Amino acid sequence: MNKQQIKLNNGLITTLDSEDYVKYSKFYWKCHSSRIDKDGNSTNYASQAQTQGSGFQRNSERVFLHRKIMNARPGDEVIHIDGDGLNNTRENLKLIRK
Question: Contact 66/53 with Cβ under 8 angstroms?
Answer without folding.
Answer: no
